[in-house]
């Protein structure tokens, strides 16, 4: 299994600095507007420079959003109103 992971890792991962770029772009790019999503531009969206990405339909599901919020609070112990 280790040889397979060693081979796959460079294809599906990147440095912490590169991984931070989408968040930094969303927070600092003056052309960003609310509701946009940024992520890696490379193979499968796993790695590469930051670019605007398509937001998948389940992301707009209000019931799913509430469930994710509830589970996140349960798992972390954090409570937000």
TrEMBL record:
This chain belongs to the protein called Oxidoreductase
Note the superkingdom of the native organism.
Bacteria
């Amino acid at each position: 299994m280790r040889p397979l992971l060693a081979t796959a890792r460079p294809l599906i991962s990147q440095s912490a600095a590169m991984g931070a770029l989408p968040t930094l772009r969303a927070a600092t790019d003056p052309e960003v507007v609310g509701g946009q999503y940024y992520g890696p531009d490379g193979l499968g969206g796993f790695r590469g420079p930051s670019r605007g990405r398509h937001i998948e339909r389940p992301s707009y599901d209000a019931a799913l959003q509430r469930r994710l919020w509830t589970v996140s609070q349960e798992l972390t112990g954090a409570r937000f109103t």
